[in-house]
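thread: overnight batch results

M.L. [08:02]
morning all. the overnight job finished for the chain we discussed friday. pasting input first so we're all looking at the same thing
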Amino acid sequence: MAADKAKKKHEHDKRHRINKEIAVLGTGNMGTSLLLGIIKAGLTPARKITGCDINKEKLRSLAKEWHVRTSTSLRDAVGGAEIVLLCVKPMTVPKVLKEIKTVVRDNHLVISIAAGVRIAFLQETIGRKIGIIRTMPNIASTVDEGATAIAYGEHVSEVQKRDAEAIFNAVGDVVTVAEEQLDAVTGLSGSGPAYIYMVIEALIDGGVKMGLARDVATRLAVQTVLGSAKLVKSSGLHPAILRDQVTTPGGTAINAIHELESHGLRSMLINAVATATRRSEELSKVLSQT
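M.L. [08:03]
and the structure it wrote out:
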């Protein structure tokens, strides 16, 4: 079932060809993952993509391996593009926008992945009524298993919406939310991989404590988390139902679950999402005042 869904998603991405000039501003982990996702899904030819960064070595590597165009000039990259992927750090966004605003055209689509930078701020700084989309992907996009939430500005056309969805579908799953929900998205899926890495690390250490070699414990822990997530996704069943399927009366799992509940695992994870959400809200306020 999961394989069928993946195949259908890939076929959908292949049908919706963007075939437009795209500038990727910032070729760090996320920018590069989106660039490669676009190429691998066949959304637009590599020759129509420009990677822009201050890291010349990274640009040389991208050009050599993927045959994209590269530039260290923000203005040149944006001036020749129709879609601009803003993949720089949040605190760098104001400086980048001020540099490119004079070459932004009315038909440009700007897609930002910068956490906490609101659409209104982007619109005001650019000074034009153009299509602006704000997104919150996560680091799993680098292995095409990302979770991305998208919020649309008021001047985004239906074609631009499809273009944006195709780009992020190429690196994982996409949901559409209201912009005010993006802070909660940041707390859940944006920061979420960090929580899961801690769970994996703890499971490995638990295995080592009980006598397993670390490499064995690592393989088992990683596959257990991967397989469990995959089963939730492919079955469509609530996690509680799947948990009950491996919880037998008087068995090992129910005893372990009691231990986790008595130490507040569920509450700690809920509080982690809430805390990260509040911090995202705080950062948004700071950035809106810059």
